[in-house]
Amino acid sequence: MKVCKFGGTSLASADQIKKVCDIVTSDPERRLVVVSAPGKEFDDDIKVTDLLINLAEAYLKTQNCDKELNQVVSRYQRIAEGLNLGDGIVKDIENNLKTRISLGYDHKEKFIDRMKAAGEDNSARLVAKYLRSLGYNAKYINPKDAGLYLSDEYGNARILPQSFKNLSKLRDMDGILIFPGFFGYSLSGEVVTFSRGGSDITGSILAAAIEADIYENFTDVNSVYAANPKLIKNPKAISVLTYREMRELAYAGFSVLHEETLAPVFRKGIPVNIRNTNNPESKGTIIATTRKITNGPVSGIAGTGGFLTINIHKYLMNREIGFVRKVLSILEEESVSFEHVPSGIDDISIILRKKHIDDDKVSRIMERIAHNLVVDSITIGYDLALVMVVGEGMMNSIGVAGRATTALAKGGVNIRMINQGSSEVSIMFGIDEKDLDAAIISLYDEFFDENNE
Ligand code: ASP
């Protein structure tokens, strides 16, 4: 049995949904199908998830969201018309949205998640109905009935372990099962969503739960590329990657997969195949436990901005037992997760994602560290970007860091920080955000330009 997931662009219009259904029905093993909400049909279009967020925010502000509701309903109406599904399903979707609104809220995040989840939920109902209209035995599956339970971290939920056993029962159901991505339920029965792009995670959870042969993730590109195609013209296509490589690349900006996608399938060793809904003949990229190292030390170059760093200096820090634990326990008490902690003998820096923390919290954390740990200095560095040079082949190859730093120097990029984990699967460079594009281009030229290989 295969699990396949289709992203927003694959659901953006009636024509796209027809392609999805052709792909699903062309292989009898494709029986568990995860769908996103309709995404952008053209460049200036707005994703249904964003329309739903607008709707929720308008309602929270003014208790009125008629205009926003109509925008969402007309998106689905256009799709339903193109699929010849009649008005019934459009009325159902409108009622579904109105019921969600009428349930009220005791806090904002809960309400926003309930509204956001309507995108995938109604997509799944619509696709199941369309397949039935073609004569297939297809069912919409409600994540609550199937037992997909999540932590009650609204907008950023994580899977609860008991879900896997519940979801494994889907294996025994007949027909084609259409499962909405992106959300599940808290133990108290509230809708909770993953972070944005989280339908990828749903697909991975389902693949692990039913022990699928493969997790096919259909998107709108032919494969994963060695660097961002918006920056590098015709970058090298990657046919096989390991989970570790993909995890590092997704972490640092490869948006083809949500960065939390791989954990469930990785634990079960289920391969992932990234494929293109618009070109199903293309074999795409396989992500698996191991691969043959045939392509040189580096598989890909990724980079992303949006980080800040708290730099702590204390003379003789290296002799002070428990120093780092005390710093990290302040972060824990403030519910902040850190990304990296590069250190020297008398310095540590804590790298945080800006989107995980606001200015007040940063100031509070800095005051607490300065006061409780009596440090000599504590400063903040803004506008940090991270660039990762990623590849399993680096482990047995000498001089990769040298080549990378020389390339960055040639590109005029100042390195603020370097970090290499013990797995040697990646080298991370902390640089100024303004240098990000130059850094990626220089590193790509160094490792992928044929003249340098
Ligand atoms: N629709 C959600 C989003 O736009 C989740 C997803 O598509 O994966 O973030």
In percent, how helical is the residue content? 25-40%
Q: What is the average of the pLDDT values?
A: 95
How many strands, which pairing sense, and closed or not: the largest β-sheet?
8 strands, mixed
The overall strand count is 17
Strand content: 15-25%
Please state the overall shape, judged from the principal axes of the Cα atoms: globular
Radius of gyration: 24 Å
Structural overview:
The protein contains 15 helices and 17 strands. With 453 residues, it is α/β, with parallel strands linked by helices. α14 (400-410) crosses α15 (436-448). The longest helix is centred in the first third of the chain and has 17 residues, at 66-82. The protein is globular. Bound molecules: aspartic acid. Aspartic acid is lined by residues 7-8, 36-37, 47, 49, 119, 181-182, 196-200.
Describe the structure in brief.
With 453 residues, the protein is α/β, with parallel strands linked by helices.
Give short descriptive properties of this protein.
453 residues, 15 helices, globular, alpha/beta, eight-stranded mixed sheet, 17 strands, binds aspartic acid, five-stranded antiparallel sheet, 38% helix
Give the helices and strands, then pairings.
Elements: E1 2-6, H1 14-25, E2 30-35, H2 48-62, H3 66-82, H4 88-102, H5 108-116, H6 118-133, E3 138-140, H7 143-146, H8 162-168, E4 176-180, E5 183-185, E6 191-193, H9 199-209, E7 214-219, E8 224-225, E9 237-238, E10 240-242, H10 243-251, H11 262-268, E11 272-276, E12 285-288, E13 300-313, H12 323-333, E14 347-353, H13 359-373, E15 377-390, H14 400-410, E16 415-420, E17 426-432, H15 436-448
Parallel strand pairs: 1-2, 1-7, 2-4, 3-4, 7-11, 10-12
Antiparallel strand pairs: 5-6, 8-9, 11-12, 13-14, 13-15, 15-17, 16-17
Helix pairs in contact: 2-3, 2-5, 3-4, 4-6, 8-9, 9-11, 12-13, 14-15
Aspartic acid (ASP) binds at residues 7-8, 36-37, 47, 49, 119, 181-182, 196-200.
